[in-house]
Design a protein that fits this description.
The chain is mainly α. The protein is built from 15 helices and four strands. It has one domain: ABC transporter involved in vitamin B12 uptake, BtuC (Orthogonal Bundle), CATH 1.10.3470. One of its GO terms (cellular component) is plasma membrane.
């Protein structure tokens, strides 16, 4: 039996401290995000912090499908838009169309539920294909939904969409104010991140990853591959739906442009830039793209911005197919120090045993 000390990941759950369970990186990141409002202006708090968290959640729903299920979707912004339109129709708007004025604690759960059902329906169609065909089907769905909302004035108010969508005021706090909105986005993003991280280690998550690697074998031993995939789409719809509600409150409006093909591709770019191997990747990609959208567009101009995004995307993928996470794994010094510490411990123990004999 080896006498090498166990790493935190190798220890039983009951033998770990709370720091080892959460991880030092998670603790430091959480502390930074909690005190971020004390260091940032209102602009950075909402336009960078809050917006990055919202885009990160939508990209996280894509990461759940692509990273763990092997199903790349270009319809996640469509799912988020479904939740946004429910908020506009059943909440209050200034467009003079619908706006039933239901309370937020009724239409918000309804919006998330409808978005999850829309996602499951898209998944039920898409899981019959694999690879590039799944991408093309979800792109076709996203494009069809864009044109349908643009041409339908009776339900979606056509091209103008809905304006004047306000976040609720609860206990005297208006949730679109910079600090409350940031913490609301942070709470929802943390919940979604923790759920995906926990789900990946659950029985369902491990089964989904096994289906991703070898669906034929999983089907042969009795697993319902289609049901597992569709359920993954439903779970991804919950995350994208919650982000869609926050996105509507952030913009104050929703229109067909919100769910156009461009934003759909941007979500894929964000997820790939950040990395699809871990749930933190989409949030890293969202921060990078949001910073570029906020500052680089003024330097190079709006007409060349997509070219810049494409060049950054190609550069990161060329250097590291796993995105920013892959770069971190490749260059972080901690990995070398950990290997050196393990080597020194092993050689010391071997020397001690040699002296005893």
């Amino acid at each position: 039996m080896s006498d090498l000390p166990l790493s935190p990941a190798q220890k039983p759950a009951g033998a770990r401290s709370w720091i080892e369970t959460l991880g030092l990186a998670h603790i430091l990141l959480g502390l930074f995000l909690l005190i971020y409002p004390a260091m940032a202006s209102d602009f950075f708090l909402t336009q960078i912090g809050g917006y990055s968290l919202v885009l990160g959640m939508i990209s996280l729903s894509l990461m759940l499908l692509a990273g763990y299920g092997g199903m790349v979707s270009l319809a996640q912004i469509t799912v988020a838009g479904a939740a946004g339109y429910v908020v506009a129709i059943f909440g209050v708007n200034n467009s003079g169309v619908h706006g039933f004025g239901w309370p937020w604690w009724v239409f918000v759960p309804l919006a998330i539920a409808i978005a999850s059902l829309v996602s499951a329906l898209i998944g039920w169609i898409a899981v019959r294909t694999e690879g590039i065909y799944t991408i093309m089907i979800t792109l076709a769905v996203a494009t069809a939904c864009f044109y349908f909302t643009q041409q339908n004035y009776a339900l979606f108010n056509g091209f103008p969409g809905y304006n004047g969508l306000r976040a609720p005021e609860v206990f005297g706090v208006y949730w679109r104010d910079p600090v409350p909105f940031y913490y609301l986005c942070l709470a929802m993003a943390t919940l979604a991140y923790a759920a995906v991280l926990y789900g990946a280690r659950s029985t369902f998550g491990l089964t989904l990853q096994a289906i991703r690697d070898n669906p034929r074998r999983m089907r042969a031993i009795g697993f319902n591959v289609t049901a597992h995939k569709v359920f993954a789409w439903w779970l991804a719809g919950l995350i994208a739906g919650a982000a869609g509600v926050l996105l509507v409150w952030f913009n104050g409006r929703i229109s067909p442009g919100t769910i156009a093909v461009g934003p759909a591709i941007n979500i894929l770019v964000i997820a790939i830039i950040g990395g699809l191997r871990h749930p933190i990747g989409p949030f890293l990609g969202a921060v990078v793209v949001t910073l570029m959208q906020t500052f680089a567009i003024d330097i190079i101009g709006a007409e060349r911005f997509n070219t810049l995004i494409g060049l950054v995307f190609l550069l990161i993928v060329f250097i590291s197919p796993d995105g920013i996470l892959g770069l971190w794994e490749r260059f972080r010094p901690q990995a070398g120090r950990e290997d050196w510490r393990t080597f020194r411990t092993a050689t010391k123990q071997v020397g001690n045993k040699g002296r005893k004999t």
